[in-house]
Amino acid sequence: MEKDKIFRVAFIAFLPQMWKSLRPLYDAVKNAKDAEAIIIAVGYDVKWGDISVKNAEEFWLKEYPDSIFGYKENDFPSLSDLNVDFVFRQTPYDFRYPKKYSNYEISKNSRLCYAPYNYNFSAEKHLLIEYDKSFLENLDILFSDSRYIVDYCESQQKKYADIGTIDMYYVGSMALGRYHSFRKNKMADDKAFTILWIPRWSTDSVNNHGTSFFKFFHNIIEYFKKNKDINCIIRPHPFMFEQFIETGRLTNQDVTRIMNEIDESDNISFDFEMEYIDSFEKSDVLLADYSSLIAEYYLTCKPIIVCDEYCDWNSEPYVVDMSQTLYYGFTWKDVEEKIERLKNGCDDLEIERSKVVSKYLPEHMNVEEKIVNILRLIKNG
Q: ∠ CA(34), CA(177), CA(63), 5° rounding?
């Protein structure tokens, strides 16, 4: 293969839990005969984040021994030295990355690409955060998982003259595409009925979406103490406890006490693993704040109880149909009633959910191959 025909792609990542959104693309680039893939992993450590963040270095160096790993600015090479054509960063937010890997610096040396790290079903609130003006000013290529988001970004281009040309492609979601094989697996039916609760990290319900942790934690503890025949898995956002401490809602001692209380329970546990698919498989129902995991869990065809009354669903057809086939519980009384009905086999929305999954899942298949083909065409002019 002629050198000038080969395209080099750098993947800049930091959080192993989010890697599932880029891993299929990394694998596809690595397996392409006319492409080269590089992983640059940015280390981090927080005192009270999800315990798995402290294992991030181990993850990257064990899974990808050829990756470039570091913590400080000087640990990383410049992109001009690496001579890469395209760069995919795990998230659009500069504060998690060295300055030399800011959106602005990347766009000076390579073509900055973005394939969303989550499935964003917000109508506006979260789009303002994820696709803010400073990010769009430097973005070269968007591989979108939603037509709604393409329309949103085009509207921002018209609104702000500083946002230049962005090549936008609707290709589907790599995160959603992996459920094609998952939902064919037989779910265990000889286990205890299990709730998976995913409380959010944010305490700001006005500018973001708030957490149900403080609202429901004691209810959860009491309910499962009385119902020893069923289980609860709590999978907090990786930075939930860190945020609660920083905002003064909890102290270090509070977090230690909560951890110990859960450790002492026979039927409640925390899930701090890198991959959440195991908890998806073990659970029968998802209890969720606003989270992109709603869109993923939905593809298992299992029921979901949404406890965020401020979800601003957008008009993407999949989102509309999904939002109409979810259960909602904004008080513990509502949530408990829904759990009891589902535990007893009364899932009134099961058939409708299955129809929605069958209708939309095909749109999210082979997304990584679509992206590789587009990159190839761009490289070759």
A: 60
**Dist. CA 362–CA 228, nearest whole Å:** 40
pLDDT of 329: 96
Please give the backbone phi and psi of residue 184, each rounded to the nearest 5 degrees, phi first. -85, -15
CATH 3.30.70.260 fits 180-362, yes or no: no
- pTM for the model stands at 0.90
Query: Which whole-number Å values give the CA distances from 332 to 14, 175, 308, 337, 339, in the listed order?
Result: 36, 31, 12, 8, 10
CA 170 to centroid of chain Cα atoms: 18
Percent of the chain with pLDDT over 70: 92
The pLDDT-based confidence of 216 (bands split at 50, 70, 90) is very high
* Cα separation, 193 vs 362, whole angstroms: 30
Asked if the model's pLDDT at residue 50 lies above 70, the reply is no
How does DSSP assign 274-289, residue by residue? S--HHHHHH-SEEEES
Q: Is 187 left (phi over 0), alpha (psi -120 to 50) or beta?
A: beta
- List C-alpha distances in Å: 294 to 172, 196, 354: 16, 11, 15
Q: Phi and psi at residue 7, in whole multiples of 5°? A: -110, 135
Comparing CA positions, the residue from 22, 24, 32, 28 lying closest to residue 41 is 22
- Which of 302, 223, 225, 238 is closest to 266 using CA atoms? 225
Which residues of the chain form CATH 3.40.50.2000?
Answer: 3-179+363-379, 180-362
Instruction: State which fold the 3-179+363-379 domain adopts.
Output: Rossmann fold (3.40.50)
* Spatial contact of 374 and 336, defined as CB atoms under 8 Å apart: no
Residue for token digits 């759990």?
A: 339
Q: How much is the pLDDT for 41?
A: 94
